[in-house]
Design a protein that fits this description.
The structure is a single chain. This protein is mainly α. It has one domain. Helix content is 74%, strand content 0%. The protein has 6 helices and no strands. The protein is globular and about 50 Å long.
Amino acid sequence: MAAHPSLMLAATVALLAILSGISIADFPRQIIPDPLNLALAGVGLAYQMATQADGLPQQILFAAMTFAAVWLVRRCHFVMTGRIGLGLGDVKMLAAAACWVSPLLLPVLLFIASASALLFVGGRVVATGPAAAQARIPFGPFIALGLCCTWALEQFAGSNIGLL
């Protein structure tokens, strides 16, 4: 079922507002506030319920599986290196992002987020020197970028490429 244009506009504005808040909070402090992650998940599930209520249980299961898989990657990285490479807020944000998009588009979201983060680090290395490659960076703004792009792809091209 296609969403009414005003519902899609309202969801998009809410999404952009929440992602802006997450990016503004995460960039300087490298902490994603739980209330913003909850808002991201809640509004995403509300949109899914309004547009395709019969698919809501699958969307919740997908979000839970996303959380589990990303948490496992986080844990394995810690066990292998002794360092935390992905914050728990990022894990929660990816699970909340899974409430917004089709499971088929999660790899696209992850690719956009990872590639943009790598480009950011590469730019910092070029601008300030090789030591910048060792500096911690917040991943939330890059997840936000990936979610925005993936949301736009799904809403505006999804039915044309067989995702809806």
